[in-house]
Amino acid sequence: MGIHAFEEQVRFIKGGYAAIIDFFWDQNEEDLERVKRSLAHLLFGKEEFIRRLYDVLNFPEWKIRHFGESCALELSGTARPEMCPPMNGRSAKGLRYIGFNVPAS
After folding, report:
1. Which conformational region is residue 15 in: left (phi greater than 0), alpha (psi within -120 to 50 degrees), or beta?
2. Which of 14, 20, 85, 88 supports an S-S bond with 74, CB 3.0-4.6 Å?
3. H helical segments located in the chain
């Protein structure tokens, strides 16, 4: 629950903060091992980071429902800052505000 991008989804979940964890696991069919395998692939897989990110966001074998680009980038940058900087929608918006050309996802 330390990923701000994940917590930002609260506004779209009926029941708010109290319901987000149950909603996430329901959408991911309570499959803890699959979620762990996907997160391990994202953070520690053998391929280049950009390939692993693409896998987790797009391929059914790796995709985690309700864990999108901002969640993946924020987690990756927080857990492995040498791999990529922590980035989520909030930080991208801030960078755009001060003049950096950060594309909207």
Report:
1. left
2. 88
3. 4-7, 17-27, 32-44, 49-58, 69-79, 89-97
